[in-house]
Amino acid sequence: MQLSKTEEDLMNYLWKLEKGFMKDLLEAYPEPKPANTTVATLLKRMNDKGFIAYNLFGNSREYYPLVKKKDYFSKHVNGLIKNFFNDSSSQFASFFTKETNLSKEELQELRTIIDTEIKNKPQ
């Protein structure tokens, strides 16, 4: 299951806050802020999809994420590699390094990350 762009935006605020009431989430938005009803609808859809849950305090709901940001992002990247790069990480890496405006320093950082991962992988 996937989040829509507007749900993803709201989820980013919730990941940042870790938990929050409707007023906290509304405060996190920049101006112009969405209507309360819009955020309430998004929260209900996200709850129905299993991305968030809430604790009741009287009539107020404190929302919290059920999915970690890293896990959500990882699933998206893996889907992207599968669907757009024929399940080839090397095709993805080639595209990413050639078609983005990475500086020489950023490419060297990527190399360091990859070299470290290679060393840490079991034989």
Strands, total number: 3
Described by the principal axes of the CA atoms, the overall outline is elongated
Low-pLDDT segments, ≥5 res: none
Query: How is the biggest beta sheet arranged?
Result: 3 strands, antiparallel
N/C terminus separation? 34 Å
The Rg value, from CA coordinates, equals 19 Å
**CATH architecture descriptor name of the largest domain:** Orthogonal Bundle
Question: Could you explain the architecture of this structure?
Answer:
With 123 residues, this protein is mainly alpha-helical. The chain has two domains: 5-65, Winged helix-like DNA-binding domain superfamily/Winged helix DNA-binding domain (Arc Repressor Mutant, subunit A), CATH 1.10.10.10; 69-120. Helices cover 63% and strands 11% of the residues. It contains six helices and three strands; from the N terminus they run αβααββααα. Strand 2 and strand 3 form a beta hairpin. It starts with a helix and ends with a helix. The model has no long low-confidence stretch (mean pLDDT 91).
Protein traits:
123 residues; mainly alpha; Arc Repressor Mutant, subunit A; 2 domains; 3-stranded antiparallel sheet; 11% strand; elongated
Short description:
The protein is mainly alpha-helical.
List the topology elements.
Elements (H helix, E strand, L loop, with lengths): L4 H13 L2 E2 H7 L7 H13 L3 E6 L2 E6 L3 H16 L4 H11 L4 H17 L3
Antiparallel strand pairs: 1-3, 2-3
Helix pairs in contact: 1-3
